[in-house]
Amino acid sequence: MKDKPVKFGVKMWMAADSISAYCWNFDVYVGKRATQINQVFGLSAQVVIDLTKDLAGKGYTIFTDNFYTSPKLAHFLASKEIYTCGTVRTNRHGYPQELVKTKAEARQLPGGHFDWMQCGSLVATSWKDNKMVYFLSTAHMPELDQLATSRKNKDGTIQRLPSTPCVEEYGRYMGGVDRNDQMTRLNKSKKSMRWYRKIERKLLELSVYNAYIIEGTIRDQKVPGKRKRDMMSFKLDLAHALVGTSRLRKRSAGRSRSENSENILRLDNISHLPAIVEGKDHVCVVCNERHNRYKRKHPEATYSENPFKRCKTTIKCSKCDKYLCCNTKNMCFTDFHTLVNL
Hints:
Blueprint: E1 12-16, E2 23-28, H1 36-41, H2 43-51, E3 61-64, H3 71-79, E4 83-87, H4 103-108, E5 114-119, E6 122-128, E7 132-137, E8 148-152, E9 158-162, H5 165-173, H6 176-183, H7 196-218, H8 231-243, H9 257-266, E10 274-276, E11 282-283, H10 285-297, E12 312-313, E13 315-317, H11 332-338
Parallel strand pairs: 3-4
Antiparallel strand pairs: 1-2, 4-7, 5-6, 6-7, 8-9, 10-13, 11-12
C-alpha cells in the first residue's frame, strides 16, 4: 500500500471495542474471494459484513472510516439491526451530491457549518472543519440544539464549532482499531521468508492485550495513590506466572551433547587413519586444547611459560576431520583416539 508508512506486510481486518480497543473479531486478508456478497457490495463492505455477522439483532453501532462506509452497506446492516456511523467518500453510489461542496464553495463556509439530508433512517451529513467532511449514519438524529465541538487554534485558544450528533460520537468512539494497533504493534524486523511468524507474533500480542482488558473488568487497575497498572506491568506478571518457580539452570561442568557425540566418534576405534593434507598452517586440536586449558588456569603466564605449545601439523584424521600431530615428538593422533580427557 504505497500511501501507508509501512508499505508492505500482511493485511489484517479488525473489529475492536470503541472504548477499550478489545479485539472482538479479525480476519487476515488472503486475496480476492468470488463470493456473492463481494460481487454485490465489494471488498470493503464484505469485510464489515463478515466481521459483524454475529452482532445481528443485538443493536450495536459500528463506526467505520470512509474506506468501508457506503449507503448500500448502511441499509444492509440496518436490516440486521446493526447501526452504522462513519465518514464516507462522496463518490459512493447513492450519496446525495447536493451536499457535496467544491473547494471554492467550502472556502466560503464558516467553520462548523453543516447540512444534512435524510432517507428513512439513513442520515447524510456534510460538516465543515478545516475542510469538508462527509458522514453517513443510521444511529443518530440529524441535529440537536446547542451541540458544539472544541477545536484548538494555532495561537492556543479554544474555539467552539457547531456540530451534529454523528460528528460528536464519531470523534468520541472512532479509533478503537487504531489504538489496538498501537498497543499490539510489532517492532520492525528484517525480511524473512517465514512470513507466518509475524502473524503468530501478532496473534500473541492480541491475546495478551485482550487478557489485559479482561483483567481490567474484574480488578481495579487504578489504585488510589499508586501508578496505574499499565500493559508493561501486566506483561511482566504474565511472564512470571507462566514461568512459575522454574529457572534457567546453568550448564553443568560436564560436556555438552555435541561434545559427547564427538567423543563417541573419536573413541570408537574404527577406521581412524592419518591423511596428509596440503598446507602447513594447521594447528593440532589436542595441542591447542591443552594450551588453552593451561592458559585458563594460569592467566598470568606468558606464551613462553606455557608448557603446551600450539604445534602445527600436516596430518589429519580422515574420519574425524581433525588436524593432529603424528610424529616422534608428539603423538596427539594416538591420544585423541584413546584418551577420554585430553
